[in-house]
Amino acid sequence: MDAPARQASRREATLTPVRNWPRGLRIGLLIGVAVFLVSAVLALGGASQNQAFHAFANTDAFGIAHFGNVASNLPYLVVGLIGLGAVRRRWIEIGGWAVGGPFVALFAGFALVTFGSASYHAAPTDASLAWDRAPMTIIFGAGLAMVLADRVLPRRAAPPMLLALLLFGLAAVVAWRYADDLRLYRIDQGLGTLVALSAAALFPGRVTHLGLALAMVAIFGAATMCEAFDREIYTALGGAVSGHVIKHLGAALAGVPAILMITRFDVGASRS
To answer: What's the longest Cα–Cα distance across the chain?
Structure first.
């Protein structure tokens, strides 16, 4: 392992002394985080889709309605394809289907968001939004699965866990679409962020570097804030670009740390 990698491993070990705790205790803590997340979301009661969500700042251009919100999805495809190429090149080194499978699902999710989100923004409705959210659940589920596969689960358990998380995500979209209840979708988001980060902090890993995992969540969080202030950003920038367009560009960049996990992976490095 080179000097920068050794320094990163030492910093990560210093930041996470809980990894010296008994494994059973750490697993209990991880389950506790997941239970707390689920309980908190369910306790909030039903969450219907606010129809004002579809009222984005004007991004018409070149005579095309919603051009900015549609075209800004292209970076998702670029990141997805680059990521899939990186996984293909290092498939054996990172562990085959056990660890590589979740990365394949993650980058495939990024690529699929391009088409689902573009379709939604071309004609924003609840029905078209389902095609945007479905690939997002693939990203959330794969994000948790890749951390669990690399850090917590035995190799044989990783593929079934990935499948279960992907099915849960799709069920969450169906529950929202036909029961108008977003709680399962919010839980899916939390599993792919809060629980994934908790697992990365509690357990050492070979591929899913903690710092890069934190970067993924931080970038996605910042992008989500831009989405929340879509019109305000549009007004502040004089109509040059909307918050939602920036959200698309930022959320796509959240896939870059995952690519770096693959390209910077050192086969001879210790678990960090």
So the answer is: 62
pLDDT in tens, 44-97: 877 789 899 999 998 888 888 899 999 999 999 999 999 999 999 999 999 899
CB 161 within 8 A of CB 209: no
Judge contact between 120 and 90, C-beta under 8 A: no
Domain locations along the chain: 3-12+22-46+66-263
- The count of C-alpha atoms lying within 13 angstroms of the C-alpha of 272, restricted to the half-sphere facing its C-beta, is 25
> What is the CATH architecture of 3-12+22-46+66-263?
Up-down Bundle (1.20)
pTM above 0.85, yes or no: yes
Contact criterion met (CB below 8 Å) for 209 and 8: yes
With beta carbons less than 8 A apart as the criterion, state whether 133 and 185 touch. yes
Q: CB of 243 within 8 A of CB of 234?
A: yes
Phi/psi of residue 46, each to 5°? -60, 145
Tokens of 126: 């609840």
Residue 231 in contact with residue 241, Cβ under 8 Å?
A: no
Tokens 């669990």 correspond to what residue? 148
